[in-house]
Amino acid sequence: MAAWDRLDIGRAEEYFTAAITVAQRSGKPTYSSKLAGSMLGGLRYEQGRLAEAQELLDAAAGLTHNGGPMDFALETYCTWARVLALRGNVAAAEERLARGQRLAEQRSLPRLATRIANERIRLGLPIADSLREQLLGLSPYRKQDNKIDGQIAELEQDSAIRLLLGEGSPAAHELALVRAEKLVTELETERHPRALVRAQLLYARCLLIRARIPPADGRGNRDREARPFPTISTSTCSGDSATFRVLTSFGAGWAGASATSSCAPAESRWRERSGFGRRRCRAAIRIRR
Question: What is the pTM assigned to this prediction?
Answer without folding.
Answer: 0.77
